[in-house]
Structures are given as structure tokens and as C-alpha cells.
């Protein structure tokens, strides 16, 4: 189920569906970059795309760009409607 959610998120993100604002993405990225639950990819070429959250297993590159996503431990929330 987590894998399907992750793949679904990557597809949504790639297609620009439910895209969060740049302001939201930057805000979320700063929080995730300081979080001890961040699992960094060892890949040099695709590093940016393969960082994952160790709590939910999501690829962060996709997760932080989808407005309806939320941090599993409430460090950041879905983007408010109408933003
Ligand atoms: S989504 Fe939440 S728990 Fe996961 S890395 Fe980001 S801040 Fe940490």
C-alpha cells in the first residue's frame, strides 16, 4: 500500500496535479531537510528525487509538491484550500 501511495504521488507530482505553491514547497523542504526522519539517497545522479521519509516511506520530492499531502508526524500540514 505504501509503495502504491508513493508511486501515485510521483505520478501526481510529475503531471503537476494538485501542485502546491512554491512558497509551500520551500517551507516544507526546509522542515524536511532538518528532520531526523529524512532518509537520504546514496545515488549521486538522482539524489534529489530519491530522498524518502522514513515514517511514511514517501519520496519527498513528490510529497512536498502535492498540496493535499501532510507530514505523518504533523511537522507540516496540507496547503489550505484556496491558496
Ligand atoms: S514528512 Fe515529516 S517526518 Fe517525513 S521527513 Fe518530512 S518533516 Fe520529517
Describe the structure in your own words.
By secondary structure, the chain is mainly alpha-helical. The protein has one domain (2-65). The chain is 41% helix and 5% strand. The chain is built from four helices and two strands. The chain has helices at residues 2-15, 22-33, 47-50, 60-63; strands spanning 38-39, 52-53. Strands 1-2 form a two-stranded antiparallel ribbon. The chain is globular, with a radius of gyration of 12 Å. The protein binds iron/sulfur cluster (SF4). Residues 31-32, 35, 37-38, 53, 55, 71-73, 75 line the site of iron/sulfur cluster.
Radius of gyration, taken over Cα atoms and rounded to an integer in Å: 12 Å
Instruction: Identify low-pLDDT runs.
Output: none
Please give the share of residues in helix: 40-55%
Q: What is the element string, with H for helices and E for strands? A: HHEHEH
Number of separate helices: 4
Oligomer: single chain
**In angstroms, what separates the terminal alpha carbons?**
29 Å
| Beta-strand content estimate | under 5%
Record field, number of beta strands: 2
The neighbouring-strand order within the major sheet is 1-2
Number of domains: 1
| Shape descriptor | globular
Structural class: mainly alpha
List the main descriptive attributes of the protein structure presented here:
two-stranded antiparallel sheet, 2 strands, 83 residues, 41% helix, 4 helices
In short, what is this structure?
The chain has 83 residues and is mainly alpha-helical.
Amino acid at each position: 500500500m505504501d509503495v502504491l501511495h508513493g508511486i501515485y504521488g510521483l505520478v501526481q507530482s510529475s503531471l503537476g496535479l494538485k501542485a502546491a505553491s512554491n512558497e509551500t514547497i520551500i517551507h516544507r523542504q526546509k522542515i524536511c531537510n532538518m528532520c531526523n526522519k529524512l532518509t537520504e539517497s546514496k545515488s549521486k545522479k538522482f539524489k534529489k528525487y530519491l530522498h524518502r521519509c522514513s515514517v511514511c516511506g514517501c519520496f519527498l520530492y513528490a510529497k512536498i509538491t502535492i498540496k493535499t499531502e501532510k507530514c505523518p508526524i504533523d511537522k507540516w500540514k496540507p496547503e489550505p484550500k484556496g491558496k
